[in-house]
Structure formats: structure tokens, C-alpha cells
């Protein structure tokens, strides 16, 4: 009999996708802090026969600077393994000939250096944090309401995330705000968009059922991956809340205390 | 035959309720500016046999200061004729023994002087404008997410309003933001809440079908009033947009260029 439950299904996996914030580290002042055991867990996965990618909705820094931070925290990660929303957004802009008005974190701006931002015909919002002032949100609103066909891109749709000093509102909250203000539906670039997950699967060269997503966000990591045909396991770190385990519509394929425990269970099943 | 259409139904009216911002005046720097003809129109209504009240979602100042501003603009209005959300919210707080965390405009704070705000067990948001900083919204979010039964009151649910220098985001946008962040449904105090309209009808001592609401907001003024059984006429001033006249679900009983035109049509019908 096939072990379709957790951790039995780990035997048939060919690849693992990890979320970053809340799984590998908690963000906060400076670089934030690595979650205990996660540096070693990433190392073990890299030494295994499983393929590994990192899929994040991080939009406070360029991919380059973000990966540099992870390396300073002690993780052996390179930029080509990391999939954030901004490069995917740039591809969409070029493909559709769009000129964005940006409401993003200052640290993300260099990702959009190569695109025309004059006379904008769409708005892109990311996790702008303190840049989500009334003035800035109102400016983005006025751009949208002035367009004949308003187009809003949201880099992720998270509700909140955890920093070392507490929970912080995420981009999805401001996406909902602008959706209501302008009576429109945003296009999400990032998790849980199936297009976004598929780009990672394409890079892995694997089928969804061969891949496991591990994240701390029940809806965007676990639910998003499951929606694409992958397995989804939630860690009890980061933004995890006990009520996630009684969610009315999304049920993780497994729930573990942290990444270290998940990796040990996976590798044990596979006989490492 | 009864003239059930506009302006025929004006013959059977006993009372009129007016919205303020966008109908009597446009807000902006200082006191804002009166909309041409509106001072005279209010005077004509007061001299007629119709009862008159003012129903507003204004939450940037206390009722006293707000009415003082209207009087400086030239309107003959007294505080007892004006129904804003804050006094209604105070009544709810007292009735249910709630202690609010306030995210409102500085000018509104004195309305809540008499209530205990320690160890809050609910959040009240109003049109806080510049006070809707990321830090303040995050603080309100943390109060809500920390409550076992989070209660959010929104003083109105408007999308935006017009000031002399352009459109401004209204409280409803931030209500939607917090609803999404905390996965809850806010309780609206103000238009279009039926409870709120009913309190004005009670004060008038009239039945809904005897009363006309005139406003610039299709959903909150016109739709809200119609939902209570009143007639609703929209003015093409303030936040009015041409697309309002093709709205899929709400159709005004009449649409007029401004309050002056509405009042002239009403009084003509009534043989004044």
C-alpha cells in the first residue's frame, strides 16, 4: 500500500519548495534571526537527492540583496534558486507593454529600473510597509480611478507576517483596500497564484505531484500549492496560529513544529 | 393617477434628509466651499412645510465644530438637526459596555471623551485621513487580532470623497483592509446602516415612504435610503460620477444637477 499520508508520501517526492520568511528566519530589525535548526535543515536537503527551490512573496528588497541577507544569516542559498514576485512582475509588464505606478518598499525599486514609469497605465503594490501612508495609498488610488481600464497588480496577497517585534500588515490588506476603493479585482503576482507556482515547477522540471511545498502561511503556501496539485505542509513557526489547524476550507497534508522536524521526517522516510 | 416618479412623488413628501459634504459644500482647505445655490436651497426648504434633517458620515470633527463650520459657510443649520456617526457610536459603546481603541481624526477625539479606553475590547475607525499611517493601522490590527472576539466598528463605509484638490480615500477602504487582515466583518455605524437612518426617521416622526434622501453617494445615500423604504435622489456634485447612472444594482429615484435644482423641482411640484 502507498503511504499517501504525511510523512509517508515523502518517499515519492522529487523536489521540495520552501517558503523563506517564517520558515527559515523571522524578519525584524537588521537581518532578522534564523529559526533554530533551519540552517542545518536546508543543508541536509541540499545534500539529499531532492531538488530544492525557494518561493517567497518577499518584496522589501531586490532578489540580490535579499539572498545576500539570507547568506549572512548562514543559509547556503544562491539567487537562481529563489523565486520572488518582482522579477515575475517585470516579465508581465514587458509582455503586456504596461507602465507601472509603484507603491512598493524603497528597497524593491531597483528591480523596476528597466521599465518606463511615465504616464502610468497600471499600479503595482508590494509589501511597502511604512510607505503605505495615507498620502501614498491615495496617490495610487487616484492613478487607478483615472484610468479607463484600471489594472492593479499585487505582489502577493498575504494578510500579515511576523517580525521579531510582532505581527505586521502585509500587502494583501492594501490590495483589498484599493480593490474596494476602485471596485476592481487585483491580479496577484506571487503566491498563491498558480502561474507563479508553475514557474517554479517549470524550473524544477517536475510534475506537481512530485513536489512538496513547506510554508508557515496556510492559505498562500499550503493552500496555493495544493491548488496546483502539490503537497503542502505547514510549520508551526512564523505566522502560524493554532486556529490554522481547524481552518474550514484548507487542511495541510501535514503540520510540523518547524522546518528541522519536517526535513528529518522526510529524510527518515526516504531512508537517509 | 399617482405621480410615483421623480419629481411627481415630491407632492406626497413630509420630510427631506440631506447629505452634507458633496451636496451642500465641497470639503478642502479651511472650511471648503459652498456648492453654488445650496445655501439658498436649504433656506427654501426651511421656509417650506417640509421637515428637514441632515444625515452625514462626517467624522473629521465633533458635531459642534462641524456645524460651526457649516454656519461660517453661510448655512442656517443647528446641531440638533445634524446626525453624524460618532454620537451614535458612543450610544452603542455605552449600551454594550465596550472600551474602544480609536483610529479616527484628531478632530473627532473629543466626541469619545466620556468613555473608558483602557484595555480596549473593540476598535473604532473613522475617516482618519493622514492618521491612516501604516503604524496606526498596524496598531489597530494588533488590538483586533489579540481579542478573542474581535469587534470592529466603522463610522461609515464610503470608498472616497471629493475635496477641492481631488478625490480622497474614505474610511470604508480601511474597513475592508482590517476586515481582510482579521477575517471579520465590521459593524457599520453611519450611512447606509438601516439603524442609523431609522434614528433620523424617529427624530422626524415620519414613515420612510414620506421621506426623501438627497445625496451625492449612490450607494450610501441613495441605495441606503431606498433600502429603508425612502426615496433617494442623487445630485451630480461632490463624488458623483457619470457611471453612477448606469450602476448595475442601485438606481436613484431621480438624478439632478445639484441641490438647488432638486429643491426647485420639489417645491414646484408642491405648488410653492
Task: Offer a few descriptive terms.
homodimer; 272 residues; alpha/beta; Rossmann fold; 2 domains; 6-stranded parallel beta sheet; 4-stranded parallel beta sheet; 8 helices; 14 strands; 18% strand; HAD-like_sf (chains A, B); EC 3.6.1.1 (chains A, B)
Q: Can you describe this structure in just a few lines?
A:
The structure is a homodimer of 272-residue chains. With 272 residues, chain A is of the alpha/beta class.
Can you describe what's shown?
The structure is a homodimer of 272-residue chains. Chain A is an alpha/beta fold. Chain A has two domains: 128 residues, HAD superfamily/HAD-like (Rossmann fold), CATH 3.40.50.1000; 103 residues, 3-Layer(aba) Sandwich (Rossmann fold). The first copy, chain A, contains eight helices and 14 strands. In chain A, helix 1 runs parallel beside helix 8 and helix 4 crosses helix 5. At the A-B interface, helix 4, strand 10 and helix 5 of A face helix 4, strand 10 and helix 5 of B.
Shape of chain A: globular
Return residue spans of chain A where pLDDT drops below 50 for at least 5 consecutive residues.
Answer: none
Label the CATH architecture of the largest domain in chain A: 3-Layer(aba) Sandwich
Alpha plus pi helix count of chain A = 8
CATH class of the largest domain in chain A: Alpha Beta
Strand order of the largest sheet of chain A: 5-4-1-12-13-14
Question: How would a crystallographer describe the biggest sheet of chain A?
Answer: 6 strands, parallel
Portion in strands of chain A: 15-25%
Instruction: Tell me which protein chains meet in the greatest interface and how many residues each side has.
Output: A-B, 30 and 30 residues
For the CA atoms, what is the radius of gyration of chain A? 19 Å
Structural class label of chain A:
alpha/beta
Number of strands of chain A: 14
Instruction: Summarize the helix and strand pattern of chain A as letters.
Output: EEEHEHEHEEHEEEHEHEHEEH
Domains of chain A (count): 2
What is the typical, i.e. mean, pLDDT of chain A?
95
CATH superfamily of the largest domain in chain A: HAD superfamily/HAD-like
Q: What is the third-level CATH name, the topology of the largest domain in chain A?
A: Rossmann fold
- Assembly category: homodimer
Main location (chains A, B): cytoplasm
Function (chains A, B): Phosphatase that hydrolyzes imidodiphosphate, 3-phosphohistidine and 6-phospholysine. Has broad substrate specificity and can also hydrolyze inorganic diphosphate, but with lower efficiency.
Keywords (chains A, B): Cytoplasm, Hydrolase, Magnesium, Metal-binding, Nucleus
GO molecular function (chains A, B): inorganic diphosphate phosphatase activity; metal ion binding; phosphatase activity
